[in-house]
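Table 4 source record.
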Amino acid sequence: MEIDEGIIVGTCCSMCPESEMRAREATGRLHFLERLPTAKTKGRPRVSPDHAVKEFSRPAAGKEAVRASDLRPADVLRKTVRYLLSSVVSRTDLPWSEVYGFVFDRLRSVRQDMVIQRIHGDDAIFILEMNVRFLVYSGYRLCSESADVFDAHINGTHLQECLKRLIVLYTSSDSRNLHAAEFFAVYLVVNLGSAESLSLGVQTKHIYGSDPVFKIALELCLAWSNQNYVRTFRLIQRLPTLHLWAINRHLHSIRCFTLQVMNSAFASKNLSYPLSSLTLLLLHDSDSETEELCRSSGLNVDDNGNVWFSRTKFLPSKQSPRRCKWIDRRFHEDDLPQLIEGQLSDRDVGSLLPS
C-alpha cells in the first residue's frame, strides 16, 4: 500500500478489482452487463473482465480497511467513466431504466474511490462534469417514470452534490477551466428560483459573463426572479440541449405560475384567451396539453378553443414532469455519448437564437 501524507493511492488497473469480480461471480451478483455472453459454469454466469465495473459499497462498522488494490487510480477512473458513458448508456438491448440503475451505481463507486484517494484538480473535474451530464440527462429522460422505476429525488440530490463539488474545484483552481461557464450555467438552471444560486451567478458574472450560455442562464434566473414569465420562456428556448434537460424539472411550476398570473390579469366574464396562443407561450407540444393544464387548474376551455379565466375557480395544477417533444427534437439518441462527453456543446451553442 502506497501512502503519501496519509493518502491511499489505488493500484487496481482494471475497472473492477479482481477480488470483487470473483466474489460477485461466486455469489451470483453479476449484472447482466458484466457477464460473458454465453459461457457458464454449472449454470452460473461468468464474469467478463472487460465489462465488470466496481459496484458501490457503503462504509460500515466492522469492515476491513480499504486496500490500495481495491482502489482505482485517477487514470483508471477516467477510463471507467468513459466506458460507462460511451458504451453502456447507448445500450438498447434492455430497458434504459436498468441501464440508468447500473451506471448510476457504478458512477457513485467512481466518486467514492475519488474521495477516498482525495483526487482533485483536472481529474476530479473531468469525473464530476461527466457525472453531472449523465444525471441531468437521466433526470430528463426518466422524469415520467413511476417512483419505483426512477427516484427523481435521489437523482437530484446526487446532481446537487456533484455540482457543488465542481463549483468548489472551479473556484479553487489557479486556471480557468474550459467547461466552467457551462457548468456554472447548469447550476443556475437547476437551482432556478434560489436566491443563493442567483447571488453566485451575479458574483461570477465578471468571470463568465462573456460566455453565451452563462449569460442566458443568468438572464433567465433574473427574469424568473422578477416574475417576468414572457422573458423567462423566451430565454428557455435559447438554452442548449444540456440546459434544456436541466430546466425541464421546473417547466411545470413555471407554467402554473404563468397561468396564475394570467388568471389574475385576464379573469373576466367577457374576456377569453386563445388556447393556441397560450400553447405557444407555455412551450407546450400541443393544444391538448395546454387544455389539460387549464382544466386541471379549474379553468374552462370552450369548443372554439378559448380559455376562460376565473379568480374563483382557479387552483394550481399538480402534475409530474414530463418530456417535451420540442426538447427531444434538439438531439438524437445516437448522439447521446457525444452529448454527455461534451463533444457537441459547441454545435448547440452555435445554434442559439440571436438576442
